[in-house]
Amino acid sequence: MKKLKNILYGLELIAVRGSNEIMISGISIDSKKTHKKNLFVAINGINENSHDYINEAIKNGATSILCEKIPKNLLDGITYVCVKNSRKALSVICETWYNSPSKKIKIIGITGTNGKTSVATMAFHLFKKIGFKCGLISTVEIRIEDKIYDTNNTTPNPLTISKILNEMVKSELTHCFMEVSSHGIDQYRVYAIKFNVGVFTNLSHDHLDYHKSFKNYRDVKKIFFDSLDVSALAISNCDDKNGKFMLQNTKAKKYFFGIKNLGEFKIKVLEKSLEGTLIKINNVEVWTKLVGTFNIYNFLAVYSIAILLGLNEEKILKILSKINAPVGRFQLTQSKNKVVSIVDYAHTPDAISKVLQAIIEIKKVDKKLITVIGCGGNKDKSKRPLMGKIVSKQSDFTIFTSDNPRNENPNSIIEEILSGVDKNSKHIIIIDRAEAIKTACLMADEYDIILVAGKGHENYQEVNGSKKPFNDLKEINKHLKTI
Hints:
- The chain is an alpha/beta fold.
- The chain contains 16 helices and 27 strands.
- Strand 17 and strand 18 form a beta hairpin.
- It is globular and about 75 Å long.
């Protein structure tokens, strides 16, 4: 329990109606899950405005309300607090409620269009193997040492973030590796979090349904680096055309990594194969299990973080050489009949292009690359024809199928993808994703490569608001075993 006035410390208050001396039992952002003596935070959301549920929150036990507009009819015994931006205020009060956990643990935030999960996850495993007690907040999972929790968002809401960080502090963790999405930045989910390190991977076409323009998307990402303080480190990919722009106004100490351009951290790629990549870094040759140039950028980002945080270079390279990519990220398996399958989360034009290019560089010349792909529903529609164009040009054969159609008609989604497809390409449409994967497996001959892209680690397919069990890798393995 804490006094309301202590929770509100640091906020720019517009008005307070009622006593700020009352005791608060917790913070709630869901009126249905509000408990006795909670502070309910009303947010003007994308799909719903929770100001409409203030009375429901009060019925469920809320004794104080934080909002952007005080209701006309005030109830006795309830304290109403008005702020300009509820989202921003939520981030601040969550940090306050949990006694500023982000200041008690080193937090490394990774942002960019692609590579966030790979960098965060590989860094987590590297630091853990070296002996640090670490946490992870990613698209795939939340981890507190060996405890694993499911997650619904790349960057959770502020209440969840602060709660997790507090658990990490109580468990005496030293480092937390966190994916920072553009939605998370724009919606102030990480506004009050103190980051020790910020990492930029790359930037390409994505989430324009939300951000409306690439410029807006880029500028939101930059806010993350603008907010870093002088004690922080900012690490950026200098081979990306937005790499230097991201760090333009940051107060943090700047560092760059790359393969093509000169930065503080540089790698040379010597050999590529299905088994991995031979690289040279600081005149030391290292073999890594990671496949594809895009994955070498991820490797270099992790290496940069580790060096700048004082880890031993020899230990870093020894461990990184053995680390695999995360689940659903260029996850490669070979069947008994020597068909190679790859499951990857690539769902943006840039990501799918890089994955396909990586496969082309290691594929036997006379063998086929069969790609199974779709696009998610209720998401950025403008990228669909771009995806179709890229996949149809770089694959020998493409099967267009359903991804997570959500509330859209899968046929309509595929029609939009097909509007960009190369007319001379070989492709078919199989709406049912399981059938599409089965067909790809039946088509494949020895040493052919099947790429199933878009869903990666996901264990479900979302159709008409419900999630049914589905996993690309399980489907592939099921069919390749019977061939």
